Amino acid sequence: MTIKTILRVSAAAALLCGMAAVSSAAQEKAPAPAPKATAAPATKAPAKTYVDKLTYPKLHPITMPQVVRETLPNGMRLILIEDHELPLVSMRALIKGGKVAEPASKPALCALFGEVQRTGGVKTMTGDQVDDFLERIGASIETNVGDTYGVVSAKTLTEQLDKVLPLFAEFLEEPAFAQDKIDLAKTHLNGMISRRNDEVMGIARREFLQLVYGAKSPFAREYEYDDVDALTRADLLGYQKALYRPDNVILAVWGDFKAPEMKQKLAEAFKGWQASGPAPVFTEPAVPQPKPSINYVEKTDQEQTTVLLGELGLRLDDPDYPAINMMSEILGGSMSSRIFTQVRTLKGLAYGAGGYMVPAYDHPGAFYFYTATKPHSTAEAIATILDEIKKIRQEPVTDEELKKAKDGYLNTYAFEFDSTDKIAGRLATYELYGYPADFNVKLRDAIEKVTKDDVLKAAQKHLNPDVLTVLAVGVASKFDKPLSTFGPVNTIDITIPEPKPKEIIPEATAETLKAGTDVLLMAAKAAGEPALRGLKNMASEGATTIKTPMGEMELKGSATFVLPARLYNSITTPMGAMVQVVDGDKGWMTMGPNVRDLPGSAVAEMKRGLYTEAGCALLLQQALEGKLQGQLIGKTQFEGKDANDVLVKIGDGALRVYVAADGTVLGTRQRAQTQEGPADVIEVFSAFTPVSGLKVPFESVQKVKGEVKSSSKLTSVKINPGFSEDLFKKPSGEEKK
Prior knowledge:
outer membrane lipoprotein receptor (LolB), chain A; Cytochrome Bc1 Complex, Chain A, domain 1; 3 domains; 6-stranded mixed beta sheet; globular
């Protein structure tokens, strides 16, 4: 039964629960994902309507709540805002540091810290006990670490504050970092690494940030499996001790309380927390101007090209930012922007396109221009965006464009202050970065004063099409013109580095290769050599029970396996019927009317998995035909039984086959992608039954780290029943991205 091959696809459970790709979490300074873009019909520019003539009265002034600022004796700065509308109290502590303070040699430290600081519990409660406690009283405590600061936040009913505040203080002062939760978080991070190339916008954002800021910059660097594996509890404790100290914390508290009483409560809660030694010193990372470049990422499972263009931008407090804000709104910030109008409305190249300058508080932000278009309009879309970038530097924008951009900003300005949560968060952020408390008012006033000449001068000064970074993700062979039309092309390899092997395999020798191959030939004879030599295809039916984060799930289905590299799986899941197809180097999935190409890495993973089907029938067949060899590693114990350990190289990977003295293939072990990242997947065969002269294991179990992840039972197997080519014709359903 080949249903079990789904377990070898990264994020298989996510694929079962929904065909839509899971979007990556939004990154600071990164653009919003472009809407799906296949081909919009070309239309004329929209005619003006009465809506364009509407006028609006001036907005009422925003009334700010009273803000109390205090500093506790231990140096912790407080921002207190009373809000008695609801019986709630919220707390948000900002700890200066973040990834900027992360050692470059430990790029996964902040990601691990931000998760385990909360899940690892405190001295008085385990993380699970904290979950139960907070759930009972309707409260929450969360932790995270960003580019330049860490966060510990809490929300509680006013009546439960005295229970939550001491726990909140413990998470700030002395989290426990329980080892079991560290191990669990490492598994989670490895799973994220294994899936990071599944979603195209995640790839584009990640690679674009590395191109603009540099791969080693804390604003862009990535971590790998070995980085996660190398981290220890001592690393987390060291980071905690260095940065989490009261004189490095800004604590905003807002809600249903009296400010003097709250200050007293906070002073009592944190009285035992004292800073010792010199305060941490933060050096702003250098952000050199990147060289202009044209970059390409091959993503063969995409039906469109995702494009990002940009360059370094400004800090939020740059005097030119108000004019740049208006310029980027006119150029690409809305559905009436120049880029959107040209790319979609007039040329019909995409459903979405745009761009904007995203500032940062303490370092240069970046300009982003984006679209997603058909492969055969890739160059045209890039050229169109470049033309609009050049034009806005050549002559002033129109009065109408500037008015619309200002109105758009000013009409949304009030929404930045429509809750106490937003006000408190903004004030704490300003305090962290040393901005004045009324910065947003000054920014609003500056934007109101921006002129057309200001926009032109700012565009000419800060937006330079000659130094742009251009990134295209897709299939270059389908582009209308080569990317080299725009300059020399740098091809980016996004292959995820495998973790360093912990087992040292001895070099193969003529003797060990002969001995290993002899073991495989012995296994082929035991399985039924004549049947193996004549095996062309097989059909099977049965059921597989898999373990998912949601519990056990039984999948029934049928499969057709055409040797050596064609597989058709029809699977019945609780969410409906699903079909998986691998045909050589291509693969796709269908569920209902939806069709999705499998990533190339998943196809390769599944092809390797075919070598273990029916008790390694394909592998033994190719051994008989002299197409592969085995290397005898030695004698070993496999699931409590004596076995010969044979290593077989298959493509870029390797498979360990365990063969008993009588030639029975007991099982296999191979490195594969799982939901937890790369791991050794052990498959154990049993219930061997003769079918047309071939001994087939009717039962099998897959294990990862000693835990059973799936178990399969076959009800029917047919050898060489034939098949229809229609099985391998990709349906023309709706492509889901």
